[in-house]
Task: inverse folding
């Protein structure tokens, strides 16, 4: 028969917490392994309200990755269309965009985006890590 | 902590947290648990410890690893509540395993309990157990090479290496390993390394290097360094990483037991 390990209360507490964390992690990973379909990165871009800064206007850009694969070297282009001042383009690079995650950045324009005819955005490209 | 701090401060390791697939992370947790069991069985505890005690200690250390990794990652601003659960969990899991192994080695080496001579398993005739030394060589290789395995440098070195220099690196790894195991007076060499006869010396050297190669291949696979390269680049990377791994399998192994 195995002898009962000799431990004090603190050690048993650490063991209990440890077991919960280890089992919880394994359950979480196993569940994600079973449920997550291997869909490629799917980028979704939302633009916020432009904010006047010194000498330019900054537009917040939130990029979501709705897919189950990470994207690397994500390149985003925002196009400001204006009949009055002509078109203006701005770009944003994101090093890594994990699956189901979002990143926030800003693009800058000389002309005021709030008075522009249209503000369009699209991903230019990204790599699979 | 001492052993795992470089990994907590390396960005390639955080990236692996969200790049690795759930199954890869599960395998990683499984292998780390086996390493903990192996280390605790052969070096961490008294020789008469039962399997149950070894398992309980390993789970405790893993739990501590999770808590410490989560706390440090949060303090360093690497995890935030707004991140998706998969990203947070991934980062914590990747960092928690080296922390857990660090906790285990730290407790065994720096902790007060137990006479040094009582620790570790030896064979019936008092000679070092081959199985135990192989497990510890593997643990040492992982512990010491894990700090450089995730970095981009290994890929650069692997891609740029010439075959003659790689052969040279293999020779150097074996030579330094032999020097440490058989010609140094490091603490523990007499007790832990079989020096009786050329066969056992060659056996010990080859198995140590094999452990270093296996540990390197395993770590490079986990850090996604073997996925895109050609067979040549993959082997080159393994050989490049096996040099620090061999230091771990020889000198490191003696240090941690």
Result:
């Amino acid at each position: 028969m195995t002898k009962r390990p000799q431990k004090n209360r603190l050690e048993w507490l650490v063991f209990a917490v440890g077991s919960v964390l280890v089992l919880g992690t394994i359950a979480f990973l196993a569940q994600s392994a079973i449920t997550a379909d291997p869909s490629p990165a799917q980028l979704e871009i939302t633009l916020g309200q432009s904010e006047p800064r010194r000498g330019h206007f900054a537009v917040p850009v939130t990029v979501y990755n709705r897919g189950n694969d990470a994207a690397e070297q994500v390149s985003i282009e925002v196009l400001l269309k204006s009949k009055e001042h002509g078109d203006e383009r701005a770009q944003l690079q994101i090093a890594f965009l994990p699956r189901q995650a979002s990143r926030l950045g800003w693009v800058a324009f000389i002309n005021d985006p709030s008075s522009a005819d249209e503000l369009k955005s699209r991903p230019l490209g990204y790599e699979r890590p | 902590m001492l052993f795992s701090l470089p990994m907590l401060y390396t960005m390639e390791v955080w990236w692996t947290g969200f790049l690795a697939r759930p199954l890869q992370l599960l395998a990683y947790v499984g292998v780390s648990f086996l390493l903990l069991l192996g280390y605790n069985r052969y070096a961490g505890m008294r020789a008469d410890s039962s399997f149950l005690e070894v398992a309980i200690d390993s789970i405790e250390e893993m739990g501590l690893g999770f808590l410490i990794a989560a706390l440090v990652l949060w303090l360093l601003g690497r995890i935030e509540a707004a991140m998706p659960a998969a990203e947070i969990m991934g980062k914590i899991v990747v960092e928690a395993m080296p922390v857990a192994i660090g906790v285990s080695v730290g407790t065994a080496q720096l902790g007060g309990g137990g006479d040094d001579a009582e620790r570790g398993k030896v064979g019936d005739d008092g000679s070092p157990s081959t199985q135990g030394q192989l497990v510890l060589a593997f643990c040492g290789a992982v512990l010491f090479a894990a700090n450089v395995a995730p970095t981009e440098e290994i890929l650069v070195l692997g891609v740029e290496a010439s075959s003659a220099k790689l052969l040279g690196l293999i020779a150097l790894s074996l030579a330094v390993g032999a020097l440490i195991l058989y010609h140094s007076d490091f603490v523990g060499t007499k007790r832990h390394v079989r020096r009786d006869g050329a066969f056992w010396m060659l056996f010990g050297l080859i198995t140590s290097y094999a452990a270093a190669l296996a540990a390197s291949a395993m770590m490079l696979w986990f850090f996604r360094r073997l996925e895109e390269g050609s067979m040549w680049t993959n082997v080159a990377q393994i050989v490049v990483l096996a040099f620090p791994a061999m230091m771990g399998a020889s000198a490191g192994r003696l240090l941690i037991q």
Q: What stands out?
A: The beta strands of chain A are 43-47, 51-53, 56-65, 71-81, 88-97, 102-109, 118-127.
